[in-house]
Amino acid sequence: MARPPPLGELPPGYTSPARPATPQILAGSLKAPLWLRAYFQGLLFSLGCGIQRHCGKVLFLGLLAFGALALGLRVAIIETDLEQLWVEAGSRVSQELEYTKEKLGEEAAYTSQVLIQTPRREGENILTPEALGLHLQAALTASKVSWDLNKICYKSGVPLIENGMIERMIEKLFPCVILTPLDCFWEGAKLQGGSAYLPGRPDIQWTNLDPEQLLEELGPFASLEGFRELLDKAQVGQAYVGRPCLHPDDLHCPPSAPNHHSRQAPNVAQELSGGCHGFSHKFMHWQEELLLGGMARDPQGQLLRAEALQSTFLLMSPRQLYEHFRGDYQTHDIGWSEEQAGTVLQAWQRRFVQLAQESLPENASQQIHAFSSTTLDDILHAFSEVSAARVVGGYLLMLAYACVTMLRWDCAQSQGAVGLAGVLLVAMAVASGLGLCALLGIAFNAATTQVLPFLALGIGVDDIFLLAHAFTEAPPGTPLQERTGECLQRTGTSVTLTSINNMVAFFMAALVPIPALRAFSLQAAIVVGCNFAAVMLVFPAVLSLDLHRRHCQRLDVLCCFSSPCSARVIQILPQELGNGTVPVGIAHLTATVQAFAHCEASSQHVVTILPPQAHLVPPPSDALGSELFSPGGSTRDLLGQEEGTGQKAACKSLPCARWNLAHFARSQFAPLLLQFHTKAVVLILSGALLGLSLYGATLVQDGLALTDVVPRGTKEHAFLSAQLRYFSLYEVALVTQGGFDYAHSQRALFDLHQRFSSLKAVLPPPATQAPRTWLHYYRNWLQGIQAAFDQDWASGRITRHSYRNGSEDGALAYKLLVQTGDAQEPLDFSQLTTRKLVDKEGLIPPELFYMGLTVWVSSDPLGLAASQANFYPPPPEWLHDKYDTTGENLRIPAAQPLEFAQFPFLLHGLQKTADFVEAIEGARAACAEAGRAGVRAYPSGSPFLFWEQYLGLRRCFLLAVCILLLCTFLVCALLLLNPWTAALIVLVLAMMTVELFGIMGFLGIKLSAIPVVILVASVGIGVEFTVHVALGFLTAQGSRNLRAAQALERTFAPVTDGAISTLLGLLMLAGSNFDFIVRYFFVVLTILTLLGLLHGLVLLPVLLSILGPPPEVVQMYKESAEVLSPPAPQGGGLRWGVSSTLPQSFARVTTSMTVALHPPPLPGAYIHPASEEPAWSPAATPAASGPSNLGSRGLCPASG
């Protein structure tokens, strides 16, 4: 029975076998996985050799292809529309939004500008005449822009008047819609622009306009009965001149003001209690919550104090402004268009915000915060701009790090130029990937421009370091023409595995139903793919060119100059040892000697001096005892020192230059980590971190406030903070669609409104005010004209045959009552006394519903505007003329069946995401209940656009992570061909994701679509830190401890360099002006990198040393009495040493004995000649380190 010899009997340079001298070198059922991986590595070897033979062509074509793709950036589109960025295409919200736009058009009815005033001292009462005076000053200053506010403001419900003089006067005087606490006082009139002129009177303005008095003065000159009734219904009264003055001493304070004669300042809290009114008391009621923030009340509910004031100015939409001034003399010479109108509005809004912020002096007791929709657009544009300085700075920093990290004292080993070229190549690959995304039509956004260039750079440079490290650590004796193939053979599997997992991770992150994050994920996946192509195809060409530079003994970076002192390696051909010195079954023994280059100071010649003889000497003690061999084929380090204190070599490197990360991992880190007590501590601490993270995961809240996005310390952030604190109000609408009969579904519509109104988040109207919906306004209006008709009928002013003596409302009711809805018999006068416009149940007769809607829309413009119904199709225009004698005015066209209408609501008290989710769920439930009654409806508004994602965000996150972990397991199991190892990798990745999620909870980072993308991508990024170690462990030999130590030695340096490069790439994010970028990208990705380093280099080696799979290759030795059994010294192993008679001026030469065994050759593989043949090739020497030592090497002809 064959058994392996003690570890102490194995030579320290022993590598994995390559040719079977004894049977059973493959461990059981692992023959197929080993063969398949060897086949894949053989393909990579052939690829590398081919690239090396044609390195110049490959480099040229690669750069040409990447440069051509990078030109696609010229057609890149940066998306800043919030709806396009955050509303999932094809989702329920997207379909509802498309329906709204189809019926109403692309743009909103108006745009808002908001002023918020707060005291500089926290908690100070703002309900004082002085504070309101400052608010008026700021509002007046802000509205004094080049275009007068009265020309571009939104005016709601302008009535149609047949009298031309009154119509022109109304057009000039009709007030703007401004929701302000100043409307409780006469000073609110100062914000209303416009004026009218009447002979014999001063200019008519709202500051001196008494509508009741004006109508009395104009009564003898014009028939204004209909207009008078309109004002009476709207409860206009004396408008602003009947309200108290904030400053009664003002010379323009009207005599009709309640405090004009007393000269006493009003009680501001009492006046503002219950809210304010515009010029119409009935239709323009501004509730307290719209005007005041931070309110405090007494036990009886009376308003005592407040901490904030708010005024909202409404402007026309660009289309409305264009239509309003089309053909006007003021715009005929400026190429007036809808785009020009939009430009005017944007310029006005920016100037409004600027003037408002500058309106009060710095030493004022109050402060003004201003904001507009254009301000938000400007923030998004600034957020999406590429910071050239940060991009250049980040890439320069990466260039410097790569160059410094790869520079060596020995010019033949230095790779500074390779580092520079690698970073520049990754930069070009990133640019080409983004250019390809632009060509594919994937829109860019803030995440793309602010984050992706740095993230992709950090990830891409990781593989650059891995290949560069592997290239310098090629096995001794590797022919020059096979160096690139050897490098790809040893590292290609790891690079392929990490790149595929990264791409799969980002593609899985595209499952997040947010367009902005989906685009970011797809772009990241494409960029990772371009990085993979650059690293596997183009960068090996760079390494091949650098190899030529090293072979020609040129300086690094400054390759035009020759190296004054280059190291040379003399390869010693295999020699036969004495009888009985080779274990039975070993084909032959080879030795590779790396000697010092001795530089003659006098002649500056480089002379390599070898000892005259060599003999076996015990090696120094090893930190891991007999389990850790000295690394065969490591970088050219000087293991010996000069004998004595005589003359020293002139070209000796400093001791500090011999230190590297691989040496640290072997001699210090791995021995410490793989001790029993250290393993226990690592497992305990990892469990504690996992448990703490699970608790932290319970602290993570959903949400992403706009204050998180806007830079702190800016005026915009101050406004948003004040608004969130004091005025968390949102305008929403309950939209009813087509597809059902409104006339026969009135009861269901009323029930829907009642259910929606009962939601906790809906702001209830005052008890004295009717619900603000079109159906209630319409019904109340019909009841009003019915009452007028009944009164006129009872008094005899209206009879069966005449209505001209009745009131305007009575005549309207008469015309509606006689309608039958039958095209053949449209009128029936007998219905005047037998039917009502509204029945006892409060419902409108279905046959009158659409004809009555036409009359209401035409006769009650203020009520229609206040209802915000937005009917589609819009009812036809119909003008009522009580004195029409032709009878044509009796024919009322019926409105078309409605396909769109809406009930407006206000949501309040929405501070946390949980509040939004509760409100959304309640609204959806109300609509679902109405759907069962036949009414098709949906809620609309910003809360439903931007917060509905949180209804299923966590479920989407868990689904994406689980699917990705499963995909990672399958990919790792497929490429590693070892489910055991793949399971351990997935376990570590899952722990990383959970711990990152828990740390977010402790840092107060909320869960939104952006952290979800990073959390999902963390699985792919984490593979960068784990798969290299796992693959190194899987392909090593020996016990679990030994294989874990070997894996650390091989991968510690490239993994650490890759982590540092990632951190350097992310470092530029820390300088962003947006705290959102710093917190949600820099902090989270930095923590992810540190967790990856911790788990990849600490936890995973410990788990592998305890639970790792068995080795794929086991060297079996036959028992034989002829086997040399020298005394095994402490520390184990054998060393080649020099004779004690070596002259002192010579360097000590240390070499390792290498046992070369080959697995069964693959089809097409190159069979090296047997050892007894004289034509020995260095290619027969196997790899001394790295996972490639199991791979077959294909024939690689030497290049000329």
Automatic annotation (TrEMBL):
Q: Name one Pfam family in it.
A: Sterol-sensing
Glycoprotein found in the keyword field: yes
What's in the keyword line of the UniProt record? Glycoprotein, Membrane, Receptor, Transmembrane, Transmembrane helix
Membrane topology of the entry = Multi-pass membrane protein
In this entry, which stretches build a coiled coil? none
Q: Which residues form the signal peptide?
A: none
**Keyword Transport: yes or no?**
no
Its chief place of residence is: membrane
TM regions (residue ranges) = 388-407, 419-444, 450-471, 492-514, 520-545, 956-977, 983-1005, 1012-1031, 1051-1069, 1081-1107
- Disordered: annotated span: 1176-1200
NCBIfam families found in the cross-reference section: 2A060602 (TIGR00918)
Q: What is this protein called?
A: Protein patched homolog 2 isoform X2
> What organism does this protein naturally occur in?
Odocoileus virginianus
